[in-house]
Write a structure and sequence with these properties.
single chain, 397 residues, alpha/beta, Aconitase, domain 3, Aconitase, Domain 2, 5-stranded parallel sheet, 4-stranded parallel sheet, 14 helices, binds FE3-S4 cluster
Length: 397
Amino acid sequence: MKLTPEEQDMLNGKHGKAAKKSMEILTTLGEIFDANCMVDVSSVQIAGVSYANLGEAGLDFLDEMAKDGKVKVLTTLNPAGMDRENWQTLGISEAFATNQIRVIDAFAKMGVITTCSCTPYFVGNVPHFGQHVAWAESSAVCYANSVIGARTNREGGPSALASALTGKTPKYGYHLDENRHGQVSIKVAAHVTGTDRFGVLGKIIGDKLIRLGKNTPFITGIPSATVEELKSFCASVATYGGTALFHMEGITPEFERYPKPSGGAFEINQEDLEKARFTLIDDELEIDFVSVGCPHASISEIRKIAGLLKRKKVTKEFWITTARPIKRVADEAGYSKIIEDAGAKFAADTCCVVAPIKGRFKSMIVDSAKACYYGRARNKLKVKIGTIEECVEEATK
Ligand code: F3S
């Protein structure tokens, strides 16, 4: 790899031990993927923040980097294992909380903004079209590449931190035009609305891409999509298909930039959509947990939930997972009071997947196909996908 004098200095240790280690990680990655050079990144989003995932080994690595490491670009965090202010109410143990705080403190020492969210684009970490970034959360990577038209590979925790501490990433993969064109045409001949059905669509397309061994779908037939629907689609297609980039005709900014994929289109009809939706509803459900906000809820979704919960009382554990700055907007708007008066709980900074909830609940209803996948796989829950309205109805039954 051709390095600039500044990058070479970092590699030689002139900028300290953490920058040296970071440049070693990035050059190794660059060599593996045949990158010719580094590219400057405008922001970083780091995943692997929950102590449940990191453990002591991960924490030791962070402590080591925090000895002299300082971030060079705007850097935010993925959800942690708990709400940093409200963890007791959510049933998190003191031992877990202590360790989670140690993790967040290590990031803070390096100058990371400790907003823990998988929707950094809602809370100020938002690149513009064509900017290079180094993000790690799969749903946010897909959103940044596809919906914003920024450029990022799907980073791991250590490589994202290395980019934060150097402001660089190796230029390969989705940073290059040649890897951003659509590979397979998908025609949606179905009426798709709502975060739940966009998530189901993401599952169908993700599953199909895995079977075809392809990465980047070129999707037609969607007349419009809200930001919330797109974030749900991104989370799902990234989960089921490992997809980091898609193009959607008339919706995403790069859909006309590259030649359309050759060959016929694979079609998804209404029956396919409903059948796939059914696969995200388990038998013998005893729903005792409701969660909305995967990816983290927008202010518009929180407003909707507040409207649905007015003058109602919840009868089951109901979490609304969101970024703390969005929760603060909800506080000011009066939505939080309505939601909390009804007995629902905000779980800011965290989510139903990364919080240590295994064994606490039997069955969960969510509006997210991604949360269904991880609810089953990681937290051993039975799951049901539903609209936000159905989630609230279940919570207040
Ligand atoms: Fe975000 Fe957790 Fe879903 S990190 S995308 S809310 S699984």
